[in-house]
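Lecture notes, unit on protein representations.

Consider one protein chain, 268 amino acids long.
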Amino acid sequence: TVSCAIWSTTRKTAAETLCYGTGLGYIIFLRHSLTNKTFQEICARRLGSGFEITCLSWHSTSSEGNLRIAVGTRDKIVQVLTLNASSQLQSVFTVRLENTVPKSVAFADNRDVYVFGLYDGNFMKLKDEDGSVVQEMSCKSVIGHAAVHSKRGVFVVDNAADGFTLYRLDGDGEPVRTFATAVPSMSLPKQVAFGEEGKVVVGGSDNGLVYVFDRKTGQILETLHHADTDSGLTRDLHGRCTIASASTAPGRGKTTIKIWAYDYAVQK
């Protein structure tokens, strides 16, 4: 089963690459062919002892077309890999965390790696060269999902209780504000993301709504109705914000995916 997935591009080519992880620890890369409009597998590898890949993130490293991939796995391991222009996967570093199961990872602007712990609510920053811990603090909740906006100096987490909580990257662990949703019927991870260049926070729920919040005030700007249960994902591209939501389906039932898109004024 697919446990997580990301889209990535390089500076050298416009072709998008789909990278996904599985419950058995495989990482697979599929690249979009611009000629025949299909996806072709370019690399696949089973990582470590084959534990579930819990999170992925990417960073375009150079003009040579390399991709830098951060991977978190269920056995408390974070590793950074490089996929070069020849589709060969090379290790940069691998570290085992003491108590933290990574739920989300993200790259800083200087290629350091942010790690967010699932059960312990731990936030840490790992050095890009060897994975040594250069910053660590504890959030006030478990973390179902997390998103980082480096330019704004903040990150937001799904607190698995009453919504989403905003923190400062250089803070002391005290929340900036909480974006409150309806109390969930059960504690399930919900995706959260920044939109409009960090002006809004978009998060899913288990009550069928996708919430759009003003980051500065915490006010609900919009609620988008999806289904009885859902989770959301947001992407910005040149002044256009796209929100995708998906609902879970029991057994082999069909799931529902909805897409919303709107234009916004890009800040100069």
